[in-house]
Design brief:
heterodimer, A: mainly alpha, B: two-stranded antiparallel ribbon, disordered C terminus
């Protein structure tokens, strides 16, 4: 098992190199450091001196891939590619391109905690709610309850999450004044600010997930061992909870495991709508201000999380289903 | 030849019309092939799918009418070359010219005759400004300004408004009922009673009901805004008719939904089938590429590409002549980006299916006969994975329309000058925090978007049920339970 995980990690490293190449090509071939300098200094008149100064300050004045002037190994390390891409592998994200030039690694560490406080409750409660709701639908399969439940799911799936957020914010914050409209505070106060976004995202994500789980459970519920379980005289809830749920676990693990990177990356929409200073709003601000250093760092972080969560999914498989062996 | 206008072929226009051609060819194919026909019949016996098809058909029609663009010729300047208007219009704009021209100053509620917020009333010319006891001019009174177009025909809006609305409402309703009746007679002629006993009848009734409801709504929409009518959905901050913006957004949604899915197909098909068929190092390389692609957070990858496109467009102003052409090129490139970043899922699916298919007897037989790899993939494997492609394409459509709204919110969506649901929702975010709130453009975007996405979802479900043999197993046998034996 350890050997398997190590091999997967090795492959992950190869993937990360590919990701790095893609982002480097995307960001530096089309948009030269000169363009970035011009954008970040701003204003109509930007002198070449200013650009040069900005580039030297940020370390963008070095050659892209290969430094002819340097000695020995520095031929490779004294380049933009090395400093801006390879250093990511030791989680050294460097400084932001914007005027403040803040340390990205520090920012990420600070904001990730905030993001997790928002996304983990959504993830856990959302998973529980959709599993319970879909099991309940499957218990009533073929009846009106099931039919109208599915209709409700399809309708709710067809509504953009933006609508849920905007309407929810209006109804609960502005009209009913149950929660603050936006903002964030540390400590226990955070609950007050987080409760509305968490509830809204729960509602927004419930329908699609529940409908997917329902098809999984229905497939299992039609199998022979379920009939045997019923024939033994087990109650319907035992059949559903112990037999059907356990056997439909693998696809559920896959689908919820692939949501793991999202937990760390934060809710893009919720965070910016509710003014929560997590990684999601950090990313959106970076995109809006075209701060490529931050976007690159987030791309890298996202890929690392994706690879790690894929390995976690595989490990979870063996726990959920003893028939699965890793090799 | 001196036409009073010149046609402008936008990138998305070309693709949309080519897609329509492809759709036509596919329909011909379906009509010829008995098995395909039977499968599609299964889609159309589902009442919800039939109703959705009618709605989607109407939206497609609007999209196509909105996809013929032209520029008007400007009056000749002596000796100069023929010049054209800087505005590119579509045929749909001709039909909706009344909505475009009836611009107000600012917000107004649906069906309103007066503006939404108070304005200072300018003193009438010739009247001296009033002075108070200190000799300072009194501030002009503030009142709700009369709209220049909304209900312009009314002499006394207070008195005549309700009556006028009622009359228009009745006429619109009558028009709707007449159209509905005509459709009913048409349907009665069309339905062949002889077949009814043999095959499950196509759900004509649900199609008729949907068409009637739509006819009624269109009837009201037309009569209420006809002549010196009203703004059915009100106006936005700069006084544009919201109904017009919503109708124009339909094309954007359709372009994103269809073009972006089509753009994934070449990569997904070529790489998926090649990986599954050749296995070995080809498979390894392709798997590596799509794992790399899917490990990058999707929205960031799209954002990065769109920012690059922005830079590209700013550097190449020679590629477009008018603002609309620029916006169109941008949405075209956005669709390509969505295609380039979104093919991994389908590719994985096709690879797995091809791995299964290549071991089947008929492929083995073809190999034994010495048929070339290329021919085997084209003739034996491709047709047998087409149902997966179809299902995925239809399923993706609604998801992409929803995604467009999110992308526009993040700021990497369609051009802000282009009408889109995402743009409207974005705008609505500010409007909903005003006091009193401006709710109508939000509601209009909501209703249209839900209608399109919901019907796309329902239609996709029916297509999946019909084409995916696995999906049918999941279906509870509701009929069998309901019928007493």
């Amino acid at each position: 098992m350890l050997a398997y995980i190590l091999r997967r990690l090795g492959y992950g490293l190869v993937i990360l190199i590919g990701v790095n190449l893609i982002t480097f090509l995307l960001f530096f071939t089309v948009n030269t450091p000169d363009d970035m300098a011009r954008l970040n200094i701003g204003g109509k008149r930007v002198t070449p001196d200013q650009i040069e100064k900005w580039k030297v300050e940020r370390g963008y004045d070095k050659p892209m891939l290969f430094n002819e002037q340097a000695q020995g190994a520095e031929k490779l390390t004294q380049t933009v590619f090395w400093e801006r891409s390879v250093s990511l592998f030791v989680f050294d994200f460097g400084r932001a391109d914007n005027a403040s030039g803040g340390d990205i690694g520090h920012q990420i560490a600070q904001r990730m905690g905030v993001s997790l406080r928002l996304t983990v409750p959504i993830f856990v409660m959302g998973l529980l709610a959709s599993v319970i709701f879909s099991l309940w639908l499957v218990m009533f399969r073929g009846t009106r309850v099931d039919f109208w439940g599915v209709v409700a799911c399809v309708v709710m799936m067809s509504i953009s999450s933006l609508f849920y957020i905007i309407v929810g914010q209006y109804v609960f914050s502005r009209v009913a004044k149950l929660a603050p409209i936006s903002g964030y505070a540390g400590g226990l106060d955070a609950v007050r600010f987080l409760i509305l976004p968490v509830c809204l995202m729960l509602v927004a994500s419930l329908a699609g997930q529940a409908r997917f789980f329902r098809t999984l459970f229905l497939e299992e519920a039609g199998k022979d061992y379920v009939r045997t379980a019923r024939a033994k005289g087990l109650t319907e809830s035992t059949v559903m909870g112990r037999h059907v749920l356990r056997n439909a676990m693998l696809p559920i693990i896959t689908s919820s495991g692939s949501a793991l990177p999202g937990l760390f990356m934060g809710g893009l929409l919720t965070e910016s709508f509710f003014g929560i200073p997590g990684l999601g709003s950090y990313t959106i601000d970076a995109i809006a201000s075209q701060d490529f250093a931050i976007v690159r760092a987030m791309v890298f972080l996202g890929s690392v999380l994706y690879i790690v969560s894929n390995i976690l999914i595989d490990v979870a498989y063996t726990v959920a289903d003893p028939r699965v062996r890793m090799q | 030849m001196d036409l009073p206008f010149k046609f402008v072929m936008l990138w998305t226009d070309v693709v949309l019309w080519v897609m329509l051609l492809g759709l036509g060819l596919y329909v011909r194919q379906v009509r010829r092939d008995a098995a395909l026909r039977a499968t599609w019949r299964r889609v159309f016996v589902t009442p919800s799918a039939m109703a959705s098809a009618v709605l989607l058909g109407l939206m497609l029609l609007i999209t196509l009418v909105d996809s013929v663009h032209f520029r008007r010729a400007l009056p000749d300047v002596a000796g100069g070359a023929q010049a054209f208007d800087t505005r590119t219009e579509s045929v749909l704009d001709l039909g909706l010219s009344k909505l475009i021209s009836s611009r107000e100053n600012s917000y107004s509620q649906p069906l309103a005759t007066h503006g939404f917020s108070k304005q200072a009333v300018p003193p009438s010319p010739g009247v001296k400004p009033m002075l108070d006891e200190h000799g300072v001019p009194v501030l002009p009174a503030r009142a709700y300004p009369r709209l220049s177009h909304g209900g312009a025909g009314l002499e006394d809006p207070e008195r005549d408004w309700a009556g006028d609305i009622a009359v228009r409402f009745v006429f619109g309703g009558m028009a709707g009922v007449v159209v509905s009746f005509l459709l009913w007679t048409l349907m009665c002629r069309r339905a062949k009673p002889s077949l009814a006993g043999v095959l499950q009848p196509v759900a004509w009734r649900s199609a008729w009901i949907t068409a009637s409801v739509l006819a009624l709504l269109i009837g009201w929409g037309v009569t209420l805004s006809w002549g010196q009518g009203y703004h059915v959905f009100g106006t936005d901050r700069t006084g544009n008719d919201v109904l017009y913006m919503t109708i124009k957004s339909i094309r954007t949604a359709f372009v994103i939904g269809s073009l972006a899915t089509i753009a994934t197909l070449p990569f997904a098909l070529a790489f998926g089938i090649a990986a599954g068929y050749f296995k070995g190092w080809v498979d390894d390389v392709i798997q590596y590429v799509y794992t790399v692609l899917s490990s990058v957070p999707n929205i960031l990858l799209i954002a990065a590409c769109v920012l690059m496109v922005q830079v590209f467009l700013d550097k190449h102003p020679e590629l477009f002549e008018t603002g609309l052409e620029r916006a169109d090129l941008k949405i075209f490139l956005l669709c390509l980006i969505l295609g380039l970043t979104g093919w991994a899922g389908l590719c994985r699916l096709l690879r797995a299916e091809t791995l299964k298919l290549r071991e089947l007897e008929y492929v083995q037989a073809a190999t034994a006969f010495g048929v070339s790899h290329w021919r085997i993939m084209l003739r034996h494997i491709l047709p047998n994975v087409m149902h997966l492609v179809l299902i995925t394409t239809v399923l993706e459509f609604s998801g992409l329309i929803l995604y467009e709204a999110v992308l526009s919110y993040v700021g990497v969506g369609v051009d802000p000058s282009m009408n889109s649901f995402g743009g409207m929702i974005n705008q609505a975010r500010v409007e909903m925090s005003r006091d009193p709130i401006v709710w109508w453009s939000f509601l209009a975007a909501f209703v249209f978007m839900v209608a399109i996405v919901l019907s796309a979802n329902l239609f996709a479900d029916a297509v999946r049920d019909a084409f995916d043999p696995r999906a049918r197993v999941y279906r509870p046998r509701a009929r069998a339970v309901a019928q007493p034996t």
